[in-house]
Amino acid sequence: MGVGKSREPEFRIRRSHRLLADLLFGLMGKIYGIRAKIPEEVRKINGPFLFLANHVGTYEPFLYYYFLQKPIHFVASDAVMQDRFMSWLLKGFGVIQKKKNRRDSKVIRDMLQVSRAGHSLGLFPEGNRTWTGNTLYYEPSIAKLIKKLNVPVITARSKGMLLFNPRWANRLRKTPVLLEYHLLYNQEEISSSDETEIFQKVSAALAHDEWEWQSRERNRIRSRHRAEYLESFLFLCPHCEHTGSLHSRGNDLECKHCGTGVHVDEYGFFDFGPDAKRSFDNARDWFAWQMIAFEKQVEDALAHQSAEPLFVDPSMHFFEFAADEVKKYGPAGVHTYIDRIEVHPEKGPAHIFPLEQIDAISTELHERLELHAGGKSFRLSGKKPGVSSLKYEIAANIIWKKQGSEHKLSAYLKTFLQSGQQPAKEGRPPSGA
C-alpha cells in the first residue's frame, strides 16, 4: 500500500487506482505484446527502493508498476497535472509534483519524506520523453540523490517503446516492446561508491539507442499511420531547409514547399526520394542534422539582428493558467522573433513575451507549448495536429545559450546544445558524462 492518510495524504496510493492499472495495463500488455524481463533479485526487493528508467512512452510509469507489482511514487511535472484525467490518475498513484524546467527544492523534501516513511520512489532522470529514441542528457546530481536516499536502486530500460508509442504520434502502434529490469545497487554498494562512479553506472544502465536496437531486431510496426505527425518533431525540411512546411499522411511525409517526399517503411525507417538533397534512414539522424541546421539559422538571424520572424504559426490555441482557473483566449497567430514571442488573439490585445522575461519554456505531449513568465503560466497548442511547438523551445534555448542564460536551458536539450555531448548508445553513457 502507499503512504498513509495520517502522514502524507497527498502521496497516498489508492487501492482503486492500483486495481484499475492492473486491469488496463494488463490488457494493454496482452493486446500489444509488451513483455518484461525481471531478474529474481529485483523481485525480492520489498522496499523502500529508488526506481530509475529511461523515458520514452506516455504509459511507462503504469506499465513498470504493472509488471513489477510494487507500489512506486513517481515524480511528475506540474505541466502534466494540468490535464484533468492525468491529474486524477497520477494523484491516485501518489505522484510527487515537480516544477517543469524550473528549480524546485520542495520536490527533494517531498521525496525524502516519502522514502523515510518506508516507501519507494520512481524517477525518469531525463525529465522528458525522448523524441529520438536515444537516452537524453540528465544532471549528474542523480548520484547525489542516490547517496542521500541510501536505498537499493532498481533500473529499467524500455526497448521498442518509441516504435510502439512515439512522442510525436496520437496512436499506439502494434510492435513488440521489452521492459528490462536490473538491480543496480544495494545499500552496501552505495556506501562504498563515490558520486562519479554512481553517475557513470546509472548512465550505462539507462543508455539506449532505439534505432541501433531496431536495426538488429527488425520488428514490424503494424500500422497504417507510421508517419503520423512526424512534423511536430521533424520541422525542418532536409532538402530546402524550410521550417514548418512538412505534412504527414498515413505512412508518408511531404514538404509542401519543395515537394520532397519521405516514406516510413514497416520497420519505422525512412525512404527518401532519389532527388532529395539529404536523406536519413531514421528520426535520430534527421533530428541531429536539424539541430545543427536550425541553430545556424537562428544564430545567423541573431548576428544580423533580423527584424523578421524566425517562424510564424497563423492559428494556435492560447490559454492562461491561474490557480485552478483556465482562461481561454481562443485562436491566435504566433510570431517568434530573436528577442520575443508575440501572440495575437483574434479577439483582444496582443501578448508580448520578451525572451529575457520568460522563466521557462517546454514542450508537453507532442504539440503543447508551456510558457512561464512573470509568475504566470501559459499554453499554446496547434489548432490542428502536427503543428510543432518543439521549434519554439529549441529556438529559445539556442538564443538563451548564445546570450549566456544557461540556467534557463531545457536539461534534455543539453544533449544537442553542449559541445561534445552526444546521446547515449546502449550500454554506454553519453560522452561527457
Can you give a write-up of this model?
- The radius of gyration is 22 Å and the shape is globular.
- The chain has 433 residues and is α/β, with parallel strands linked by helices.
- The protein folds into two domains: 9-217, 3-Layer(aba) Sandwich (Glycerol-3-phosphate (1)-acyltransferase); 311-417, Pleckstrin-homology domain (PH domain)/Phosphotyrosine-binding domain (PTB) (PH-domain like), CATH 2.30.29.30.
- Mean pLDDT is 89; it is low at 1-9 and 419-423.
- Strands 1-7-6-2-5-3-4 form a seven-stranded mixed sheet, with helices on both faces.
- It has 13 helices and 18 strands.
In total, how many domains does the architecture comprise?
2
Q: What is the top-level CATH class of the largest domain? A: Alpha Beta
User: What is the arithmetic mean of pLDDT?
Assistant: 89
User: CATH architecture of the largest domain, please?
Assistant: 3-Layer(aba) Sandwich
- Share of helix, binned: 25-40%
How much strand content do the residues show? 15-25%
Q: CATH H-level name of the largest domain... which superfamily?
A: Glycerol-3-phosphate (1)-acyltransferase
**Over the alpha carbons, how many angstroms does the gyration radius reach?**
22 Å
Number of helices in the DSSP assignment: 13
Fill in the CATH topology of the largest domain: Glycerol-3-phosphate (1)-acyltransferase
- Net shape: globular
Terminal-residue CA separation = 37 Å
Q: What is the strand arrangement across the widest sheet? A: 1-7-6-2-5-3-4
